[in-house]
Amino acid sequence: MNNQNGLKIVTIGGGSSYTPELIEGFIKRYDSLPIRELWLVDVPEGEEKLNIVGALAKRMVKEAGVPMDVHLTLNRQEALKDADFVTTQFRVGLLDARAKDERIPLKHGVIGQETNGPGGLFKGLRTIPVILDIVKDMERLCPDAWLINFTNPAGMVTEAIYRHSNWKKVVGLCNVPVGMRMGVAKALDVSPERVHVDFAGLNHMVFGMDMYLDGQNVTDTVIEKITSGDSSMTMRNIVDLGWEPEFIKALNMLPCPYHRYYYKTDEMLAQEMKDSEEKGTRAEVVQQLENELFELYKDENLNEKPEQLEKRGGAYYSDAACSLIDSIYNDRGDIQPVNTLNQGAIGSLPDDSAVEINCIITKSGPKPIAIGDLPVAVRGLVQQIKSFERVSAEAAVTGDYHKALLAMTINPLVPSDTLAKTILDEMLEAHKKDLPQFN
Amino acid sequence: MNNQNGLKIVTIGGGSSYTPELIEGFIKRYDSLPIRELWLVDVPEGEEKLNIVGALAKRMVKEAGVPMDVHLTLNRQEALKDADFVTTQFRVGLLDARAKDERIPLKHGVIGQETNGPGGLFKGLRTIPVILDIVKDMERLCPDAWLINFTNPAGMVTEAIYRHSNWKKVVGLCNVPVGMRMGVAKALDVSPERVHVDFAGLNHMVFGMDMYLDGQNVTDTVIEKITSGDSSMTMRNIVDLGWEPEFIKALNMLPCPYHRYYYKTDEMLAQEMKDSEEKGTRAEVVQQLENELFELYKDENLNEKPEQLEKRGGAYYSDAACSLIDSIYNDRGDIQPVNTLNQGAIGSLPDDSAVEINCIITKSGPKPIAIGDLPVAVRGLVQQIKSFERVSAEAAVTGDYHKALLAMTINPLVPSDTLAKTILDEMLEAHKKDLPQFN
Amino acid sequence: MNNQNGLKIVTIGGGSSYTPELIEGFIKRYDSLPIRELWLVDVPEGEEKLNIVGALAKRMVKEAGVPMDVHLTLNRQEALKDADFVTTQFRVGLLDARAKDERIPLKHGVIGQETNGPGGLFKGLRTIPVILDIVKDMERLCPDAWLINFTNPAGMVTEAIYRHSNWKKVVGLCNVPVGMRMGVAKALDVSPERVHVDFAGLNHMVFGMDMYLDGQNVTDTVIEKITSGDSSMTMRNIVDLGWEPEFIKALNMLPCPYHRYYYKTDEMLAQEMKDSEEKGTRAEVVQQLENELFELYKDENLNEKPEQLEKRGGAYYSDAACSLIDSIYNDRGDIQPVNTLNQGAIGSLPDDSAVEINCIITKSGPKPIAIGDLPVAVRGLVQQIKSFERVSAEAAVTGDYHKALLAMTINPLVPSDTLAKTILDEMLEAHKKDLPQFN
Amino acid sequence: MNNQNGLKIVTIGGGSSYTPELIEGFIKRYDSLPIRELWLVDVPEGEEKLNIVGALAKRMVKEAGVPMDVHLTLNRQEALKDADFVTTQFRVGLLDARAKDERIPLKHGVIGQETNGPGGLFKGLRTIPVILDIVKDMERLCPDAWLINFTNPAGMVTEAIYRHSNWKKVVGLCNVPVGMRMGVAKALDVSPERVHVDFAGLNHMVFGMDMYLDGQNVTDTVIEKITSGDSSMTMRNIVDLGWEPEFIKALNMLPCPYHRYYYKTDEMLAQEMKDSEEKGTRAEVVQQLENELFELYKDENLNEKPEQLEKRGGAYYSDAACSLIDSIYNDRGDIQPVNTLNQGAIGSLPDDSAVEINCIITKSGPKPIAIGDLPVAVRGLVQQIKSFERVSAEAAVTGDYHKALLAMTINPLVPSDTLAKTILDEMLEAHKKDLPQFN
């Protein structure tokens, strides 16, 4: 670590509404994770939100009585200098862009979602050039730091860093596995600490392969429980559609909530259509929530994370992040599911691709636990999504129209090459200002 | 070879309307491929057709003046004894079953087709137990023979033999690559002999990776020609839907006609819906054609293959089969695209799976030419179909309901687990008599 | 576990002189590892030693005051019934056989050693049929038990179980990694608990890839220290030959002591020659030590492990075994280097081969941590030894003379096919009574 | 091709004594391979030999009456401009360097040979930087040309081009497979055209896996014949040592003559020792032969290849080269064993490494025929040699002392790290002038 007297952590996209969760997490762990400097960085368009959330962060720290300096800045380079950890949670184009990612495909009868399908492709196209820029800064300013990326689509972004930069110290993080583990605990009616799940797959395409209670394999019991009706494995920001119980029995694993986009495409599309008409797309709902949250954050008497934040959907994110940073810093050797380089851990995915898998977390970073391979039945879809991620990352880096069209067409949620072109052209136009590489 | 005085060839499903093509092919090649005995085998339900087509075969042979004995039998074991080559072109459940494979999914808004989607699964479920039975007979009765399988879904059937029997001397054959090569020749306006195509993929999921004219790589020229409008790469039994030119440019390879089920799902479904209403499903159209053909075949003055057979859709099949048998028998060492064991030839598919790929054809069978790997963009879909084929084959062998449901749900043409179950249950009931393993 | 009231552990080869170490280990861990029954099993030839060491074991347990029942038996089946853990440490043909493994090759100018070269092959040929028999008993008598195998050559034996039986619950155990870690701690002058080593390779062919102190990568420091002279990484039962420092720097990893048979063949051979003349081969030295130990063990006043046992060479063995059993039983999730199924953890070794690698130890057994691949420079030798192990295991199972000759000739310590045949023939004759499969 | 009016071929190391063979080959094939310009290139030290052999070449062409212009030059760039094929057969340091490669290891009791062991390493260290320079020239001057490399160690050199340049149009060529095929034909007493051998492995480490007569697999017959005594599979420049028949039976494949360095190390070393004392090392014998040959070449009346050249040892080289060039130029699609990119053709070798394997030869170059994998028994040695080649190539490119030491020590013919260092240091000094990268 660079700083003898404590850690320097930089959060890019610091003006996010999630930031209070992160602050709370850091405060709680202060004893084992002595952060001296926390830099919240944002872009000029986000300055107002940065100031609001930054002020709350300072009040929270002060209230907690920990000697952590919170800095707010629009100057990324200044912030990165000698950082120990950099977390990224930014959103290029803000929620407006997300709304387009949702609305445009939907208009053409295709699922519009932030991390899957056309929306996932476009979020990647906007995000990847920025993250590669950050990584270039890091090479120069904080070459020993770890990059902890939350920015979606986290799998594609992590893949892009591995393949299109020289930076290896990156971990992609997602709250989906934590939620699944919580769900298993709930299904078993036990505390989550007693539950272990063998996670493997890709980001938003991860499976709980085997499940354990106090080390005993209870996969059959869990499958039985969740197919017999009452328990729901869903996450707040995914509509609650029930799985076909016989399919889950046939799978004999726990799919993640996002798998429903692929195994329940029709139902998910119908629900999205309905929701978008009745209450707006997810981006529009979130925008409303965010407005309310920022109103709350402005309250100078508020010096803790407000309860309402939980509705926002990113539950466990900060917990996952703080746990990861803590385990790296303290060389804990515990097991956490993260996005890291495959290195053979999942047989039928490339060794040099990003995968989401259980890892031992050490001071040298995550080391994946080899699972051999995913069951034959799910292998193909996972490989297809990895193909999509790789072609998307190439399109993002090169700004090549044909690569973008290829990515769009091979995505399993897009049912036609002609439609793919229509949606691509419309979205390229709509996101023009955030896609300089395509101009 | 077993027979010093010429070859013994057995055709299972000999009562097929295709048989005259095969006979014609054997007659044409008699000099290099001296067949003394040709056994046409069929099941009791097919006896009438066997007798009609068998009589025509005998007239054709007589007219040609070649000393080839044509035998008709319902006794498979008798036929197989000491055979040199066994070709299989049977259809369990006849065209009635195919009509159900097409109608039932379509009723639920899902593509109904003989080799893809729910139809492909069910054709596999009906066919695989029978082919494994044949293979068991062959182990005992003609252990040195080659099995040349035309029966669809040829990829799944070949996979099933590799994985669920000890028989290795099997080649899966399809006319799609021949048709694609013809298409390239037509696009270039040259004779097909001057054209070479690097084929790789799976059955009905094969790509023309690079294309050559007199050995010179002309891929760019061909792509340019086929995307500039007039040329069509389609096969007769697939509706003529135009590809999105920009997608083909992005792909920079030649997809096969069946790829449209995946890359143009919406259009293919709409067309199928329309056709099924206006002129019946493909099985129904074919049934009509077959009836007409068999009327023709009955004509005792007919002693050659009637022209009308070409409309049937299996163009080049017999040519592909005769060429393959000829090249094996004569150790020709020429290149033919067939379904064989991968053995590393395509990087991201299992070594021990069936693939459709260019092979050197020798007396020891086909030896695949390694291509390294398919482009990243198409790899995932191919892997997904291979997953589907493997799970389907397991379902066929075990009669396990959950495996069948798994196969149905993971098929990319089936958009929902719930719908998958509905279709599965309905089709299991409809095909009950041909699926003893599920009872 | 089968036994609600505590564990049943079976030690096959219970009459070994090592047994008191194991007993001591179990006693120390009694609180977390409540063993109710410990069954020491041996063959009729070992009965006397079994009785001696068994009596000592009982005295040790009594002195410790733990409620562990020690049973002595020649009836393996009786012992295995409902066991929770089975440890194997037997030696087919006893030390006499080992002496032949050492003397015969040496006579022909080839290294004679228990686990490498011709000696390793023959120990495998004698041991593998016995272990496969034990495994068959276990399938029937204690299907839920774990087999913890210490019997050398542990890598080849574990490989044989994976490839030639249906038993998967086996872990191969070796004290070499523990010794290497101790050596690193000594080189750094710190306590071993603070040291972590990334172990990967095969049994007796394992590398310490990266080394850590309190989680910090100190590989360079360790390499510097051990090449600058004074520290020795050797184990007691391998002669202390210094590595060429520049080679270790070039390697930039820690080889294991047994690597010297391959990278210092000349020196090892010369030393063996000298030792065998001056003080006898290792088996002969060990025989003498064992005689002395059993004299001590007979002393009815002895009720603890005598100090002299440490000279025997198997330091840390019992510790490794007890730690492993404890971690499985208690689902500890700690990291231990063991021999387990590769499953992709080491890239250039087969997924379905045994490797020696760091694993997370859970109630479901060891889960290997993927390392990607070994450095190119060492990969080839490791692959060659794996080839040797696999061919040897096949020879052991089939009793095929040609497979045995193949194994002997491809071993890198055997410098000629002709010499291989000479040594093979002589050793087959010498070990005749213990190799029924070759008769 | 660049030249409408015929081909331009460049031979680097044109002053070699082999050149008349190549000229003869080109003359014989003139009809199908219309070479208009043949450029013989050499370095200043080789000018005299270039002039002698060049004059002979011109006389041979004149005598044959073919319109082929032979150019002699020391200006490589001038020669390479717009070439269609470039063949390389140069020897950095001439035979003097080879003599050192042989003498120095031998002095230390280690095999001294041009392509294996320390000699192979040093020939690689001297050659690779030069070939990479040639390739850089080709990128600029004749980007469409094929590089046909004969320069030994051909496997390592081809590997180095694949891994350390961007040039992909390279084929490594060796006469060993041709000789093996001839040997099989001789053993069967048939003409070589009727024999086919499935070659796979690495250069000078290639196996004849299956052997065919008129397409029929006759492997067992050949193995039987060559182990029953009289037939010898040896090549002229390898001492004639008989294999152990039982080992060849166990292998059930045809090893290449160079395999004896590994499977008969003791005998080969003893023979080398004896020969070097009695008649000089191979380089010294060859030097004498070359002197005699060049005396012959000077004879202005000589206008054909003199018979004495056959003793030189490179039989079939020119034939292999001319056949290869002819098949590429004419897109023949025949099968030839060459060194090319693996691309999965041999399972347990890296996809991106050079292997020696049967390929279809087309205008687009060689396409390897997938064999699945080498038998387990030989896999390890082949992998070890590939490791050695890769580390050697890295040492050659970087001039890194430790990498060179690593390569030397891991070579299976070098029995000790200490000895490796001794030999390395002595050879680095001896070859100093030809190893600028190490200075």
Automatic annotation (TrEMBL), chains A, B, C, D:
Cofactor binding annotation: Binds 1 NAD(+) per subunit.
Pfam families: Glyco_hydro_4, Glyco_hydro_4C
Residue(s) at site: Increases basicity of active site Tyr: E114
Keywords: Carbohydrate metabolism, Cobalt, Glycosidase, Hydrolase, Iron, Manganese, Metal-binding, NAD, Nickel
GO molecular function: 6-phospho-beta-glucosidase activity; metal ion binding; oxidoreductase activity, acting on the CH-OH group of donors, NAD or NADP as acceptor
Residues that bind substrate: R98, N152
Enzyme Commission number, as recorded: 3.2.1.86
The Glycosyl hydrolase family 4 C-terminal domain, residue ranges: 199-414
The protein's required cofactors: NAD(+)
BP GO annotations: carbohydrate metabolic process
Stored PROSITE patterns: GLYCOSYL_HYDROL_F4
Binding sites annotated in the UniProt record for Mn(2+): C174, H204
Family of this protein: Belongs to the glycosyl hydrolase 4 family.
Protein name per UniProt: 6-phospho-beta-glucosidase
Natural source organism: Salipaludibacillus keqinensis
